[in-house]
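debug: dumping io for the single-chain case to check the tokenizer round-trip. Nothing else runs in this session.
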Amino acid sequence: MPKTAYKRILLKLSGEVLAGEQGFGIDPKKAKELANEIKSVHAMGVSIGLIIGAGNIFRGMQAASKGMERVTGDYLGMLSTIINAISVQDALEKVGVETRTLSAITVTKIAEPYIRRRALRHLDKNRIVIVAGGTGNPYFTTDTAAALRATELQAEVLLKGTKVNGVYDKDPAVHSDAIHFKEISYSDVLSKNLRVMDLTAITLCKENSLPIRVFNINQSGDLKKVVEGDKIGTLIRG
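debug: decoded output
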């Protein structure tokens, strides 16, 4: 097996990535591209847990700001993560990677219930485990779910694949003078209020000494380079 920096990772993808160029919903072509990127890492012998956001379908907090009850909006967001998870599972299995979807919300017709020991067993059998349904509770984001599941499933790192190549002091799409961080501490992320992940997720990672690497998942081959140890994007730790 090729040399890798990690034996087990938790990959958190934003839902928007699945939308591709259409900007909303699920683009099957993009799902296939992501599946091939993930397959290349799985073929290196890396154990992979995967969580996908729901921003391409529904955002509970945005709905709440327009009058929907926050709890209702959050549950709709959790259901949307299940749609994304099943889509990516289909794409992964089409490229020959054995995958299981486990959901924190009971949907037994399409996914197994999330039970930590069951998830670990699937990982030990070299299956990719997609965890859907967030934490199963409102008021918690998929970033927090990713931090929680990464800790539960004994991942060595939380990899956050986004549309930008790391963490900046301000939005690089708006500010041309935005400063990119190669490495930053949990405390600085919290004190500077850098919204790369929600504060609960950052705090959970800090308390469990779980490093986070933020990188551009749309850059072909970067996921594999990160797993091989290349210093791409931004590392958040200590």
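debug: round-trip ok. The chain is about 40% helix and 20% strand.
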